[in-house]
Amino acid sequence: MTIEESLVERYGVLMTITNLADVLEKSPEALRYCLRSNNDCWTKFNGTRLKIGRRVYFRTIEIAQLLES
User: Fold this and answer.
1) How far, in Å, CA of 11 to CA of 6, rounded?
2) Which of 3, 4, 40, 45 is the most buried (most CB within 10 A)?
3) pLDDT (tens digit, 9 = 90+) per residue, 18-36?
4) What are the φ and ψ backbone dihedral angles of 63, each rounded to 5 degrees?
């Protein structure tokens, strides 16, 4: 089973910031702080962001691709 398959099976096609923090082994507050930085690595994670109303989600398939690379 690939990373993509396991993440989609566990979280679905969209992940919340809490789900992403769990995968990256960070607290949600620390992840929010990192995502606000101008670091190239975190900019890639911001590229997977999707805002629906006031809620922020991350595309699971793109997160898996970033983790594999």
Assistant:
1) 9
2) 45
3) 999 999 999 999 999 999 9
4) -65, -45
